[in-house]
Design goal:
The complex is a heterotetramer, with 2 copies of chain A (370 residues) and 2 copies of chain B (329 residues).
Chain A (H helix, E strand, L loop, with lengths): L8 E2 L15 H5 L2 H26 L13 H10 L5 E3 L5 H6 L4 H8 L22 H15 L6 E6 L6 H12 L4 E7 L2 E2 L2 E2 H4 L16 E5 L3 H16 L5 E6 L18 H8 L3 H11 L5 H24 L7 H4 L10 H15 L12
Parallel strand pairs in A: 1-7, 2-3, 3-4, 4-8, 7-8
Antiparallel strand pairs in A: 5-6
Chain B lengths: L4 E4 L1 H15 L3 E5 L15 H9 E3 L4 H12 L4 E5 L10 H8 L2 H4 L9 E6 L14 H5 L5 E3 L4 H13 L4 E6 L8 E4 L11 E4 L4 E5 L3 H14 L4 E5 L2 E3 L3 H11 L2 E8 L4 H12 L9 E5 L17 H13 L1
Helix pairs in contact in B: 1-7, 3-4, 8-11, 9-10
The chains are: A alpha/beta (370), B alpha/beta (329).
The complex binds thiamine diphosphate (2 copies) and magnesium ion (2 copies).
One thiamine diphosphate (TPP) sits at the interface of chains A and D.
Chain lengths: 370, 329, 370, 329
């Protein structure tokens, strides 16, 4: 019957940090020292933040946490390619992007520490962290459509995991993005695993990128550990979106080097060999070597930057630890725009409960879970 | 000069409210299946496309999850989407977005974003429609914190409550009783006046028994009240209207006065909206009750296809019989 | 970025009934007189049945009804290509297929006349008429998966409209069919309209067939008014399915010559010209001309067959009209396997209601709707 | 010889029941996200893949609509699917298939096909999990005619009720209170004996007040009963267990005896399952009541994230306080 052309695969730097493209326009990125240094710094910060967040969880100071270890190039490319006026509609593993867009480390920790204030910050138009898989895709096309209706010249970027591409929301959203030529960029963080389910069981197609075909939108697969390539396909897609040419689907092929979350134990379902191989592909070292090879990044700079990361993350952790919990009534403060009088009975009950609690011991320890 | 008052049907009142809000507020947009050129399968959105253009009246792809999800996205980005789900029987695919997002966006972002959308859907049986076109599952949505559920029972209330729903900063599920879409006409003045969402409406005063209902069943409740009056029983008829959150105090005051309460709804009895009203009364008015609280409802069964739906739908006679029993209790 | 190869389009007979293929294997169908005569007869029967069903609705003797006018070739091809042991998971516009699979006209009318007994008949494994759009696709992959688990060598065919291809269920089902290599054939009845929404607004892709690409399953577009082509792609797909090679997606391009249902008025949203053009493409005349040109079908045969159709349909209508309605308690008979004792109160209430009703006038007239 | 009795946790009892039924009935298959190699994120399906193979233990693509829809297809084609929804907070996308198909297939085909599936989902809060991992929305499903909703509250009942659910010819939603997945151990004999789905379980006898609860809240209810006993108040504690359809008569008999009833559940109060119990009692036991029926429940709000979830969850003290008030009424 019908066959696909080979899906475009974009890679500028290979795992050994060698330039493997002959594409001239790649030079715009490959020679943009400022951009690459900035990208490197954000990736390093993200990795340290992730590591410390996991440690906080392990020591009972935070809840279940999904590290982005190994996927930093994708998150940083999204963050750096977007403008402050664009709208981000993220999923739950976009720590790098949130940080770049002004999210405070304290707030990220608050969210995963079980405090609603964690999503109060960031650019006011950005959507909050989204846990129900793929639902963010539908929101993103809604935002994109609002932009079009309101004559806004910005774009939406929305992210999703490889597992999420199986869920109806994502596919329905792709379809309307194609039908309505919406200014939206879909980025798949294909980290090869959806908890324990490998990419091959998730979908029978050779690439996830080609899901764009059925929706009539352009698609491309990119080496997700190559910041340069991811950044440039994103720039191209954003340009298309902003100039009224519609949506793009980008599959960034990377690897989840850590457990799914702190509640997961990946050794149950994948081999140490696979993970070892994946480490040799990881994005930070790749960019670091590229930069170092060219003399754009020295060991001293590295040391100084690691110290700075340490400082920033610790500062965030301190802020997280020292914040007072919200009062009990906070559960009603944002439920409706105004607390409905007809619910006043509930407030009475809450105050009575709080009174009872104040004469009692603290609650027992958490069990860690997803 | 335009004559602003019309004798119109309930579905025309819906259309009138939509036109009014779209004229006065640029951010109001309409989306759904067949809402554009076709004007909606029940004509609720007729002429809106012509008046407000393609950008503000959108025929979506056929996907209820998408419709609800896009509405969330639009509402979170400055628009006021009024999305139509063609029939309530097809709303279930939209549920995840209503439960997990629309009703939580303000809470989740501590007020940074909110989700002021309206989902409209015709609901209820009695129009001899095919399978899945007769659902009354308002109870499912009434249980969701952060949502509002609103049901009109007359053209005027449809107009006023829909205006209020569109103007509400909260997400609203607006359910339209399609059995009475065209059954009665009423003068509705297109004055842009919204009705409150925090009160029920007492449609008939009475001292002997309180009838609480909403939507299409208000019709049978009022007819039953007339019948009962002929026997000397004066029923107070209350239209719940705002199902979530609901105004208990009006009902409570009425039941404290009458000492008797009969709740009427078309949905399955068990775990229906009537249960909450009854439970709230049992909690707060026990000592005032002269008789048990009774419910006249649909059965706990799949709505029979239309040849037999009359066996399912609560009738005037069912209500009268129950009220008579309560009077004798 | 990436481009699709042109999607295969299959057509053997054009609108003028000329053979337009050079494909030798097409002859297997084009010269199979028995098959073509059978197909022609079923198409003619379906058309008459549809017409009378609409008339019943117009005269208040039945409920809202979706005619399959103009799409008979698709339904008949599905019916004839399937074996009795295969499982059909239909949608609501598959009258031809249901009839071929042994569905009684009486039962079809019962269903649309508001009586649950309408889906009691037919092959015992076939799924009933499905009204919630696209949900049948998920059921179909469930059935196909059951076949695979149980070692059954049959296949599933499931149908859907062009509008339905936008809904998550369909897309999720395609995905698992590809990932699990399920023995299922998806047939899109692309009749160009989803109530008032034209195909172009539904999806931005050139073909609906290419939705198979993202799921990694083969796909083909076929002239849905050309029985011969539809039949043969179905046969090929069924063979693939039965031999363990997995799923196929077939887009049959046809046209909805009638209103969406009897509750619809298509003149509100489409031009008479468009419909007129479509009539010149309709499938029955096309096959009839082909058969007549070769002397395989004469005017006498046509007359006799029309009379036979008339007889069969009228017989079905009589059976429909004369059947007694079910008793009120039927609503509880199939709710649970056994009526739960704990619900006995409900039966009491029903009997009381029935008693009250028996002293009253019949209910008022229906309002026609979807 | 195998020792058939074990001291096991609730989640282990779920696993034991699954193993038992898969061993004794070839048509039982398990599907869901991460149920295979990983054995489920809570280990409920651990080892089943090894024992019963890939064909009978299926890791599905990540799509809840699909999981439910496939289960409908499988159940209609001779299998007995036991599908896992990883957390109840993600069940909403599965709703259309449960409401419109699973619960209707037998009715729709007048018995030709049926839909004997089980959907399992961990539910409830109190384990300090992230957003959407603490839902208790059993009321939504209890309202659906044709479904069964079952909730165990101990390892032994988890085993017996899950066996019954798998053997039921009807579609069952089996909700597992994850807060008590591992909190207690109990001897469970793997004897293949199912518990009935048409009865509640009286866990403690008492003359003074009836406590009705289910799932994890049974724990606080029993603790409260112990506390009350110290004050001389004897509470009868009833585990509802089968939420839909439910056994009113056991509750009714208890309340006729005690004259007082307190219903405890973790879900939001309004339009929750407690409302139906209360309404049914108000209808049938009015004259026996010595005090109003009261509910101790979660609030009508989004479950707070875990830092503040203790403000939301009904506690032993809440129950004691309410019972004390009812005793003094
Ligand atoms: C609708 C829904 N179903 C299930 C889950 C539970 N869950 C959380 S993450 C996850 C796997 C997601 O995998 P993928 O999309 O590849 O993203 P990744 O976590 O690998 O970044 C699952 C099943 C969920 N959050 N939402
Ligand atoms: C889930 C769902 N949403 C909406 C409807 C109402 N509806 C019935 S048919 C239809 C259009 C279907 O169009 P298409 O899929 O092209 O099939 P066709 O009717 O043209 O054969 C709609 C929107 C429905 N039945 N189910
Ligand atoms: Mg992944
Ligand atoms: Mg169509």
């Amino acid at each position: 019957m019908t066959e696909l052309l080979k899906v475009e695969y974009r890679q500028y730097l290979d795992a050994g940090s060698e330039v493997v493209t002959t594409n001239k326009s790649a030079l715009v990125v490959l020679e943009n020292t400022d951009l690459l240094l900035s990208a490197y710094r954000w990736m390093a910060l993200t990795r340290l933040y992730d590591q410390k967040a996991v440690a906080l969880q392990r020591t009972g100071q935070m809840g279940t946490y999904p590290s982005s270890l190994g996927q930093e190039a994708v998150g940083v490319a999204v963050g750096l390619a977007m403008s402050q006026e664009d709208t981000l509609v993220p999923y739950y593993r976009d720590h790098a992007t949130l940080l770049i867009r002004g999210g405070r480390i304290r707030d990220l920790l608050l969210y995963w520490g079980g405090d609603e204030r964690g999503c109060a910050g960031g650019p006011k138009q950005d959507f909050p962290i989204c846990v129900p898989i793929a639902t963010q895709s539908s929101h993103a096309v809604g935002v994109a459509s609002a932009m079009k209706i309101q004559g806004e010249a910005n774009a939406v970027v929305t992210t999703i995991g490889d597992g999420g591409t199986s869920k109806g929301d994502f596919l329905e959203a792709l379809n309307v993005a194609g039908a309505w030529q919406l200014p939206v960029v879909f980025v798949i963080n294909n980290n090869q695993w959806a908890i324990s389910v490998p990419r091959g069981i998730q979908c029978g197609a050779d690439t996830l990128a080609q899901k764009g075909a059925g929706a009539g939108i352009p698609f491309v697969q990119v080496d997700g550990n190559d910041f340069c390539a991811v950044f440039q396909v994103l720039q191209e897609a954003l340009k298309r979106a902003r100039s009224g040419k519609g949506a793009t689907l980008i599959e960034a092929v990377t690897y989840r080097l850590g457990d799914h979350t702190t509640a997961d134990d990946a050794t149950r379902y994948r081999s140490p060999e696979e993970v070892k191989v994946a480490w040799s592909n990881e994005p930070i070292k790749r960019l670091q070597t590229y930069l170092a090879d060219r003399g754009w990044w020295t060991e001293d700079q590295e040391k100084a930057w690691q110290a700075e990361c340490e400082r920033q993350v610790e500062e965030g952790i301190d802020a997280y630890k020292s914040i007072q919990p919200e009062p009990a009534e906070a559960m009603f403060d944002y439920l409706y725009d105004e607390f409905p009088d007809v619910m006043s009975n509930q407030l009475d009950l809450l105050y009575q409960k709080v009174e009872r609690m104040e004469s009692l011991a603290p609650v027992s320890d958490p069990e860690d879970t997803h | 000069m335009d004559d602003l008052s019309h004798e119109i049907t309930l579905v025309e009142a819906v259309n009138l409210a939509l036109s009014h809000e779209m004229s006065s507020n640029e951010s109001v947009v309409v989306l759904g299946e067949d809402v554009g050129t076709n004007g909606g399968v029940f004509r609720a959105t007729v002429d809106l496309r012509e008046r407000f253009g393609f950008k503000r009246v959108m025929d979506t792809p056929l996907a209820e999850t998408l419709i609800a999800g896009m509405a969330v996205g639009m509402a979170g980005h400055g628009l006021k989407p009024v999305a139509e789900i063609q029939f309530m029987g097809f709303i279930y695919a939209a549920m995840e977005h209503l439960v997990s997002h629309a009703s939580r966006m303000r809470n989740r972002t501590r007020g940074r974003l909110s989700c002021p959308l309206v989902i409209r859907a015709p609901f209820g049986g009695g129009i001899h429609a095919p399978e899945h076109h007769s659902e009354s599952t308002e109870a499912l949505f009434a249980h969701i914190p952060g949502l509002r559920v609103v049901i009109p029972s007359s053209p005027a209330r449809a107009y006023g409550l829909l205006l209020a729903s569109i103007r509400s900063p909260d997400p609203v599920l607006f359910l339209e009783p399609k059995r009475i879409y065209r059954i009665d006409r009423q003068t509705v003045v297109d004055n842009g006046q919204a009705l409150p969402l925090d009160t029920c409406f007492t449609l008939r005063q009475g001292e002997d028994i309180t009838l609480v209902s909403w939507g299409a069943s208000i019709r049978e409740s009022l007819l039953a009240a007339e019948s009962l009056a002929k026997e000397g029983v004066e029923a107070e008829v209350i239209d719940l209207a705002s199902i979530k959150p609901f105004d208990l105090s009006t009902i409570l005051n009425s039941v404290r006065k009458t000492g008797r309460c009969c709740i009427v709804h078309e949905a399955c009895r068990s775990f229906g909206v009537g249960a909450e009203i009854s439970a709230s009364l049992a909690e707060h008015a026990l000592l005032d009750l002269k008789a048990p609280i009774r419910r006249v409802t649909g059965f706990d069964t799949v709505m029979p296809y239309f040849k037999n739906e009359h066996y399912y739908l609560p009738s005037e006679e069912d209500i009268v019989a129950t009220c008579q029993a309560l009077m004798k209790f």
